């Protein structure tokens, strides 16, 4: 049985659960029922089970586990990371303002631009890695919501969460942090004053590139924005399937091990790339050369995550040629899986975000680091 005294790795290994009291099964079952019968007196057989859009014991077990990881009051799973993130934006009333960090996950930026335009919400995009300037913008804008991502994908910019949380609150806003690249093991934004934290659980939380899921957690279950998010999940219904939730819970059981290995691998690769003359620059918060290294040290613990980017000396063609010569690291989007991936972000984002044409993003997996470094060595020469 898991208790509050146990370490996170222990909670995870036991999936925050106890063996089934009837059968002793050490793994929970998948509950496919969408509806639950009432008795002759029309009372529900179990008050916790009415209809499966919300009433799923696997959701509850998984959300309970994630809330413990985040030091959160409550968590809600969604059908994808974007479903989770969009539920946060939908708490903003028309006519209000949102400040969104620039240079983050392109899917969030692209969707937020369209959504805010349609809703008559003023969207201000600004660089939160310049903390003092970002705080001035918050004071000038008086937003309802401030949304940041740290470390940011794909440039690995690091934002000082405590600094931005204070300025957001002074401006009358709530702060939401997308901490997908860190996972709740390496960074707990709620501990630094953020109001909401979101993850694409599609990435490292599940870790096996085989399902889409998202999660939002709050430090205060009485907060009005949170109540809207809970209502939105229930009423608008962007819920996970039972099978996906079961897979996610299984993935989470090895999260501590995977994050440890992925972070160690990424650190070794970042240091190797920094020494390779064919590389112009390496972007990884675990490197002393990274401008956000000190902030990352202060608000992350146990490593700096699996995501890193590097600029190939030369132009777009040179970067694509390096990606093309990799034999082990797969050319594919996404991140946080057990297998390493490489992506040329400019091919995806074009000129819409200012991403460098010679940037390659790596999602580092759990392979042996020597094999990954050998693959990069072959592709880069140098
Ligand atoms: C992938 C990703 C998302 C979107 O998540 P989906 O599960 O693909 O909807 C959001 N934020 C970050 C940082 C991501 O990497």
Describe this structure in words.
The protein has 382 residues and is of the alpha/beta class. The chain is built from 14 helices and 12 strands. The strands form 2 sheets. A 7-stranded mixed β-sheet has the order 1-7-6-5-4-2-3, sandwiched between helices. It is globular, with a radius of gyration of 21 Å. It starts with 7 loop residues before the first helix and ends with a helix. The structure holds pyridoxal-5'-phosphate (PLP). The site of pyridoxal-5'-phosphate (PLP) has 18 residues, from helix 3 and helix 4.
SSE diagram, text form:
Blueprint: H1 8-13, H2 57-70, E1 74-78, H3 81-89, E2 97-101, H4 106-119, E3 122-126, H5 131-141, E4 145-149, H6 161-170, E5 174-178, H7 183-186, E6 196-200, E7 214-218, H8 224-236, H9 242-252, H10 255-275, E8 279-283, H11 293-299, E9 307-312, H12 316-325, E10 330-331, E11 341-344, H13 345-349, E12 359-363, H14 369-380
Parallel strand pairs: 2-3, 2-4, 4-5, 5-6, 10-11
Antiparallel strand pairs: 1-7, 6-7, 8-9, 9-12, 11-12
Helix pairs in contact: 2-9, 3-4, 5-6, 10-14, 12-14
Bound molecules: pyridoxal-5'-phosphate.
Pyridoxal-5'-phosphate binds next to helix 3 and helix 4.
